[in-house]
Amino acid sequence: CEQPGDVIGYTVYGNNTTGYPINRNTVFDFGPNGLATAAGLLTGPGNKSLPLYLGSITGSNVAAGVYTEVLNLAWSWDYCVGLGVGTLCVLRDKNLTPQTRTLTVTMTVTNDCQITAPAISFGSAPVISGFATVTGQANVSCTKGSTYTVGMSDGQNPVGVGGRRRMISGTNYLAYDIFKSAGTTRWGSVGAARRDSSTAEINPGNGLGYRR
């Protein structure tokens, strides 16, 4: 599927597993692998439905939008409908002239982000002044071209809204904070306290990745 500038790769499968990919411009036989029987194509007269399964290929980051492609499908058949022994068959139903239809495939990509942030430990020290500054990073991967900001909440025990963050042990508190980059500007959850994607250390810009 594609729209100007971006393409989403996908594969068509013969059943609901990835064991039977149907490659483009290649004949796929539903008979020997039992898929025709499993789909009920050979059980009695009447119209039958042949399910097709599609799976996108992961790994690419594309812009939000509606992606479409029109597939041309062609099929023919040749199978035994009467008494058959080995390779011999009394009556066959076949049409070796391919029948064709079109299939429109549509995928809709919406803006979203994935955030990963490891736990941070200050280690141990006998007094507060013994704790050193700790450096960590938050990794954010967003839909290509999307505009976004990243905020950090005040935690569970802040000194008021937008105040210092605090860890708790019993009835005791230990204040700490999270800052933007290597400076002393607090990283918060609202307004200018959030971080814009254009200020990322790695891949700054809209929907290109983010690291703090």
Automatic annotation (TrEMBL):
InterPro entries (UniProt xref): Spore_coat_component, Spore_coat_U/FanG
Domain (Spore coat protein U/FanG): residue spans on this chain: 100-199
Region (Disordered) residue spans: 191-212
Top-level taxonomic group: Bacteria
Protein name: Pili protein
Gene source species: Cellulomonas flavigena
Lineage: Bacteria, Bacillati, Actinomycetota, Actinomycetes, Micrococcales
